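User: My instructor asked us to take a sequence, write out its structure as tokens, and then describe one feature of it. I'm not sure where to start. Here is the sequence I was given:
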Amino acid sequence: MKRPKVSQTVIDEFSRIVDLQDQKGFEKYGVSIDDAQDENYSWELMALEETADLQKYLVKRIQQLTKQNRELRLGQRRILMNKLMNENLRLEQQNKELAAERNKYKQAYNALRDKIIHQLNITSDSLK
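Assistant: Let's start with the prediction itself. The structure tokens for your sequence are:
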């Protein structure tokens, strides 16, 4: 069976990291792990130390992601608030325009009403 690409990528990356760690260990201790004298090392303690470091790295990464997530949510809120403010301004402008148009119609209505009343008064006076 052919290995999936993602699996191969994991293996390749892990191998690269193991190689780098082997090189780092050799530079620090002067021997490979295979040649290290067991009596010179507490393998369990070293594993626990590495595990403690792993936990710190994970907590730090979780904090970093939490901060990024918070910043993204704040950014999304800002975008939404800007959209809402722009829509509010647009509606306010439309409301002003409609109020001005209503005033024009009201003035035209009042002028027509006054004209009709005036005409009625003239007609009424002529009938007397």
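For the description part of your assignment, you could build on this observation: The chain has two helices and no strands. Try explaining in your own words what that tells you about the chain.
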